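Q: What structure does this chain adopt?
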Amino acid sequence: MTAYQRKIFAIIASAWLVDQVDVALLTFLLGSIVVAFNLTPTQAGQLAAMTFAGQLVGNVLAGTASDRFGRRMVFQVTMVVWGLASLAAAAAWSLAALMVFRFLIGVGVGGEAPVAQAMVSEIVPANVRGKYIAFMEGFWAIGYVLSGAISFFILPYLGWRWAFAFVGMLSLVVFLVRRSMPESPRWLVEHGRYEEAEAVMSHMEAEVMKHTGKPLPVTPPLAADQAPARAEASRVQGSIATLFSPEYRLRTLMAFGMWFFALIGFFGLNSWIAVLLKERGFSIIGSVGFVTLITIGGIPGFFTAAILLEKIGRKPTTAGFLLFAAAAAYLYGNAADLTTLFLTGFVMQFFMFGMWSCLYAYTPELYPTRARSTGAGFASAFGRIGAILGPMIVPVLVKNYGPAAAFEVGAGGFVIAALMVLVLGVETKGKILEAVSH
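A:
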């Protein structure tokens, strides 16, 4: 791992950071939008669900397209989609228009996720692969905090529309930066484009030697001798068919279930955090500040997850963060005073954002190059189904059983996801992709 790979990682991670700011924005702006459009609780829930619906579509379309047409091109297209949609959201003239634009934001952001996972996993060395994907996902926590900060400073003075406009303008800057991304050499080999793959690899090798000042180590025999034959064989079987082939179907069941239950838990309770605070007497601006502060707990959470993924492995780290997130969510929902609410909320965000790092690091390692982005996209899409259902189910339960029910549902989702990882998961720590995907 040298400065060259870190530069590529920084390009991907910067784009990831800005699009996560855009996703999180609605959490902080929803109170103002409800007032501006005089929304009912049902309409507010439908607006929140549109982002997740768009992410579901983007996960599937971009994930599949990335395996077919290449990582680099699809990665760039996703940025254009959500950047322009964010600018359009600033000019939304009605609830229907805002819902359409939030859906398109979801399509762009959701499409970027599986492509970014595949790109980082295919370029970063095996011994730090999980750590760097976890770091990338950790930018989601930073993006969430930045989104809260942007809302906190813009909302009282300029209103919610300027918050959308500001993030949309940021996307245009990042788009210019990411144009220097190389295509994944693994993807080029899988599609028989050997001369292009050799050109990319030669450039990478030269950059690595320049930064290390010494010759490269000997290439592992698997990568050198079997890649062309494997590429020819892979084109016979499509990316979607690969997910459900006998070799991968249990991994697919685990990945889909893990994402579904983890996200039904996360978004089911996260959509209710502000409402719980309102019941405790917080104003809209006050609740934004409180949520922003407890979300800071997510930053050490993803750093810790990144370290543990490489130290103790993918399975125990993922399951552990899910189970601790469940316990913290339950305690947060039943907190008796403000101090307990803050402490349990901080701990809950620590484990929930660490959980996200685990999901994103683990999933792309489960599949071969021909289906890596597709597998990550479909798994994430199942998660978006959970993200859509969570905010819809929770209000019904809260109406009958009180706000604590939201956090009990979240805790239950995390526990089920953890059990699926423990029972069906495979360990992928420290193995090169060509070995672990078989």
